[in-house]
């Protein structure tokens, strides 16, 4: 939360200076709007590390290695994703929703069996996640950890917040649970864009060593894009690895 605290302190300092100088009212409004804008931007862009440290890439990676990540499963489409990963000898990281784990435990088992990494993506993936209290965030994370641990894996140490939203409550909860927050630097927008070619081109132009790609294993559209992407990465001699290998950090508690 260092960036947020610095911004807040700067905001307070400027207010005090404005009071001393007796400046025009619109300057107060301007600095307030700037502060709100920066805080909102920091909440929704996980790469900024505004409220919490997030690993969004490995900028020191020199080899052609990249991490593919999938959010919101396990899902029926996860099976097709796994088929493609197996076909192209690629490994990936899956950020799983607790409620989805309960619906498709057998798919989660296959993810683990085939050597992919699993992370926590909350229990409900609620659209109101950004308004959750610290205790609510912590509870959702811990319940999902328990579900994952019950499926024969150790406690996962990776957490990705729904929609990439961070705020002081999320930061406090993560400080208590001890997870590493995983972001991305290549966002496919595969849940927003309908045109498969546009999604693929969006990813392709941003590919570089050390990148983390955000995809969702929940639609046939993404499956079709994935095959194009895997063919491209293979032709460019990229190795598709899990996030823990890319970042050289632990994915599970020892």
From TrEMBL:
Q: Which InterPro entries match?
A: Glyco_hydro/deAcase_b/a-brl, NODB_dom, Polysacc_deacetylase_ArnD
CDD domains annotated for this entry?
Answer: CE4_NodB_like_6s_7s
BP terms from Gene Ontology:
carbohydrate metabolic process
Q: Which domain of life is it from?
A: Bacteria
- Which intervals hold domain NodB homology? 64-241
Q: Name one GO molecular function term.
A: hydrolase activity, acting on carbon-nitrogen (but not peptide) bonds
One of its Pfam families is: Polysacc_deac_1
- Transmembrane stretches in the record are none
Annotated PANTHER family:
GLYCOSYL TRANSFERASE-RELATED (PTHR10587)
Could you identify this protein by its name? Peptidoglycan/xylan/chitin deacetylase, PgdA/CDA1 family
Which organism's genome codes for this protein? Flavobacterium terrae
